[in-house]
Design a protein that fits this description.
The structure is a single chain. This protein has about 160 residues and is α/β, with parallel strands linked by helices. It has helices at about 5-10, 15-30, 40-50, 70-85, 95-110, 135-150, and strands at about 40, 55-60, 90-95, 120-125, 155. Helix 2 runs parallel beside helix 5 (about 95-110) and helix 2 (about 15-30) crosses helix 6 (about 135-150). The longest helix is centred in the first third of the chain and has 18 residues, at about 15-30. It is globular and about 35 Å long.
């Protein structure tokens, strides 16, 4: 059984814990990419959620400071979040789209001159029902804990390298 500290009960996670979650996210992305288990882009994610929501194991919504003013993006996020909550899909919010794009490009082996991607929404799908990734389990556990604390979409800071 996991015992939570007073800070965690209040929703204030330690920096060490948040760094551990960010590292787990990076591990999940880099292991899912070669398996073809990543969907990148708001519209592509919406299509994937519509076709096979049972196959989605994690939804990552990424924004930077400039994106807060993008009303259309915020509406898409609200709809995707509602759909994910309704279908019991773990959701994380990442506040560094550039770093997320770097992780995705590194994992996919893309060149810097390749076609730009829309890292605002990333879905991780399960290649098969028996996929047991410890980093994914850690992220799902973190999301469950956050929901228990009424923080339905926890925010993660992806640190620069």
């Amino acid at each position: 059984m996991y015992n939570m500290t007073f800070e965690e009960l209040n929703g204030d996670y330690s920096q060490e814990r948040m760094d551990s979650v960010a590292k787990a996210l990076e591990e999940v992305l880099t292991s899912a990419l070669p398996q073809g288990c990543i969907t990148v882009g708001v519209y592509e994610a919406a299509k994937s959620l519509n076709i096979d929501p049972d196959n989605v194991v994690l939804c990552i919504l990424a924004t930077d400071d400039d994106d807060v003013k993008d009303v259309a993006l915020q509406i898409h996020f609200t709809l995707i979040q509602a759909f994910c909550c309704e279908n019991d899909i773990s959701i994380l919010r990442v506040n560094n789209t550039r770093r997320l794009a770097e992780i995705l490009c590194e994992g996919a082996g893309k060149q810097s001159g390749a076609e730009p991607m829309d890292p605002h929404c990333v879905l991780v799908t399960s290649p098969h029902s028996s996929w047991k990734d410890p980093a994914l389990s850690k992220l799902n556990h973190f999301c469950r804990e956050s929901r228990c604390l009424d923080q339905w979409v926890p925010i993660i800071n992806l640190p620069e390298r």
